[in-house]
Amino acid sequence: RLGLVLRAMVKTHLCTYLDTLDQIAKDVEIALAVDQTLGGLVKWIQPESIEEPELDGQGDKVVASLTMRFACFYYAALNAPDTAR
To answer: How many degrees, rounded to 5, is the angle at CA 33 between CA 12 and CA 55?
Structure first.
């Protein structure tokens, strides 16, 4: 089992950061659902959690980030650790 952490960061207006981060999370989940083996590197991947968005900065534009965690499951032979089976 391998933990995969993806962090989306956007610089956007304070009033639209949630919509932007929601769209990014949706796009990531759809992309991972299309190829649940990550190009044959793992057996499957499953979402674990999406953390609360974080804000940094002041004024009209802020940097907002969203952390998404996934579990990747894989098996590899001892003599071929770079090949999932």
So the answer is: 20
* DSSP letters for the chain: -EEEEEEEEEEEETTTHHHHHHHHHHHHHHHHHHTTTTTTTSSEEEEEEEPPPEEE--SSEEEEEEEEEEEEE--EETTEEEEE-
Under the banding of pLDDT at 50, 70 and 90, the label for residue 85 is low
Query: pLDDT over 90 for what percent of the chain?
Result: 48
What does the block give as tokens for 59?
């004024």
Q: Is residue 4 within 8 Å of residue 69, measured between CB atoms? A: yes
Q: What is the pTM of this model?
A: 0.77
Residues 6 or more apart in contact with residue 29 via CB below 8 angstroms: 47
